[in-house]
Amino acid sequence: MAQALLSIQILPKLKAGDTDIIPYVDRAIDIIKESGVPYRVGPLETTMEGDLDELLDIVKRMNAAMFEIGSPSVLSQIKLSVSGSGEASMAKLLQKYPDGQ
């Protein structure tokens, strides 16, 4: 399939009594880490790089994990850049900003 960049902000609804979203977000990022795809965590979203089908499968696993840890519903906001020529790359897009500045 095509090479892609996928940025996701996952917003699980908290279960009754929960006030901290961080454990949910940490679990979602753990799923990305476990996948082995290149990724970069940002303050509002996390960007992954890889095969489009694989990235979409990771999103499915992230959403399923939110239900497993008690979220009654999940909103996932996704940005997607797909390259049929295989040129989708975080490094290429960020080469001008190596230090994030």
Provide the descriptors you would attach to this structure in a database record.
101 residues; alpha+beta; Alpha-Beta Plaits; four-stranded antiparallel sheet; 4 strands; Thiamine_BP
Description:
Residues 7-96 form the Thiamine-binding protein domain. Belongs to the UPF0045 family. This is Thiamine-binding protein. It holds the Pfam family Thiamine_BP. InterPro entries: MTH1187/YkoF-like, Thiamine_BP, UPF0045_domain. The N and C termini lie far apart (33 Å). This protein has three helices and four strands. It has a four-stranded antiparallel sheet with strand order 2-3-1-4, with helices on one face. With 101 residues, it is α+β, with helices and mostly antiparallel strands. A hairpin with a 4-residue loop joins strand 2 and strand 3 (46-51). Helix content is 36%, strand content 29%. The chain has helices at residues 22-35, 52-68, 90-94; strands spanning 3-12, 39-41, 46-51, 74-83. The longest helix has 17 residues, at 52-68. It is globular, with a radius of gyration of 14 Å. The model has no long low-confidence stretch (mean pLDDT 89). The chain has a single domain (3-94), classed as 2-Layer Sandwich (Alpha-Beta Plaits), CATH 3.30.70. Helix 1 runs antiparallel to helix 2 (52-68).
Distinct helical segment count:
3
C-alpha-based Rg, rounded: 14 Å
Tally the beta strands.
4
Biggest sheet strand line-up:
2-3-1-4
Sequence stretches where pLDDT stays below 50 over 5 or more residues: none
Please identify, by name, the CATH architecture: 2-Layer Sandwich
Estimate what percentage of residues fall within beta strands.
25-35%
Query: How many domains in all?
Result: 1
**Shape label:** globular
Named CATH topology: Alpha-Beta Plaits
Q: In angstroms, what separates the terminal alpha carbons?
A: 33 Å
